[in-house]
Design a protein that fits this description.
heterodimer; A: alpha+beta; five-stranded mixed β-sheet; five-stranded antiparallel β-sheet; globular; B: mainly alpha; 6 helices; 0% strand
């Protein structure tokens, strides 16, 4: 297929893209790591996600590290808070500091025909309400529907601003399995932790009965990943739209 | 980093494996779950389950699918707890009080998770897996 679809862009080979998963994806031999980008999680999902209905293969990546961290920080906060909310039923609370795997992914071949959703003419062309991709508070049926529409027009993915990153770095949402299109994939263990409002020390959030959570940010630390302005294994503040 | 000795991270892909045997064996080893527990969830005789594990007996495809679903649901719960063995065991055993139910209430309310799965079998597994996926990935409204 040609790359002449209206408002399309190309995800280049050779550039680094980012994704965060649970630790289980790293437990196999390195040759299995490319399953991180096979899109099966979305295919097997009962609930769907921001740009996919349930049961639709989708690979979610980001163009930059900070956007990836902000996206994950949103879900980390949300899951822990939901666990806290239901702890009287569960008998446990999810840990306030958790370890995940950040993957640096380089594709072998470019992916063309990616709908580029970055300004009003593009949103208008694809009949997308431009506010909805940027609202962090919930996912919308409208966006799932528009993704299906975009795919029906023979696009192979979409590129759109992240609702969680305060500077709206870009998500890359690909519609096909990319596990055979990986030039390199590098895992980094990365810890996420909640932090407290400065008025309720200590700095890290460790006691839900005496501290108030900072709802606008959390922190990450990695023994192998270079984080901007942070010494080795130091903590990096990740702001996100709550 | 979270102390490694507190974490149990599956080294198998429950969704990709044709047989749930690897996952079930891993769960038994790491969460001290008995043959009796799995046999009750899958609704088979304990001796049949034990012989299946040892390769002496084939179980019906529907029972195999039920065990696969159980293995998958358990890995989703483990991921929610960041693979903390101590928390997973507590979650399994904790018996909450019966209360008014909403779409977000765990389906096992009024029982322990372990009792609920043993009593409700594969349907209970389905309910638990749906709940954890709602918990993690959907908007609450």
């Amino acid at each position: 297929m040609s790359s002449t679809l209206t408002y399309s862009t190309t995800v280049s080979s050779g550039i680094t893209l980012y994704r965060i998963t649970s630790l289980a994806f790293k437990s196999g031999v390195p040759s299995t790591h490319s399953r991180v980008v096979n899109g099966l999680g979305a295919l097997r999902s009962r609930t769907g996600a921001r740009y996919n209905y349930p049961g639709v293969r989708t690979v979610y990546l980001t163009e930059d590290l900070i956007t990836c961290l902000a996206e994950k920080m949103f879900y980390f906060h949300r899951e822990v808070l939901r666990g806290l909310d239901l702890s009287h039923h569960l008998g446990v609370i999810p840990p306030f500091q958790q370890t995940f795997v950040l993957w640096e992914v380089v594709l072998k071949s470019k992916v063309s025909n990616v709908a580029d959703l970055h300004s009003l003419p593009q949103f208008t062309y694809f009949n997308i309400f431009p506010s909805l991709p940027l609202n962090p508070s919930q996912d919308y049926e409208h966006l799932k529907d528009r993704r299906a529409h975009i795919q029906s027009l023979s696009y192979d993915g979409l590129r759109v601003g992240s609702s969680r990153n305060i500077s709206h770095g870009k998500l890359v949402v690909l519609f096909d399995d990319q596990s055979s299109n990986v030039a390199s994939i590098t895992p980094h263990d990365i810890d996420f932790r909640l932090i407290a409002d400065p008025g309720t020390p200590p700095h890290d959030f460790v006691n839900q009965t005496t501290q108030i959570l900072d709802f606008t940010a959390g922190e990450v630390s990695s023994p192998t990943l270079a984080l901007p302005g942070v010494a080795h294994s130091g903590w990096y503040r990740v702001q996100f739209n709550h | 980093m979270t102390p490694v000795d507190q974490m149990i991270v599956p080294d198998f892909d429950s969704a990709a494996d044709d047989s749930p045997l690897t996952g079930i064996s891993w769960l038994q080893t790491n969460l001290s779950l008995s043959d009796d527990f799995f046999a009750k969830v899958a609704d088979v005789e304990e001796t049949d389950f034990s012989e299946w594990k040892q390769g002496y007996l084939l179980l019906e495809p529907s029972k195999i699918e039920g065990l696969k679903a159980l293995s998958s649901a358990m890995t989703h719960l483990l991921s929610f707890l960041n693979y903390r063995r101590d928390l997973m065991i507590s979650l399994f055993e904790f018996k909450s009080e019966e209360s008014k139910r909403t779409s977000l209430t765990p389906p096992w309310v009024g029982n322990s998770l372990k009792e609920y799965l043993q009593t409700h079998g594969v349907n209970g597994v389905e309910e638990v897996d749906q709940w954890i996926q709602r918990m993690r990935w959907t908007d609450w409204s």
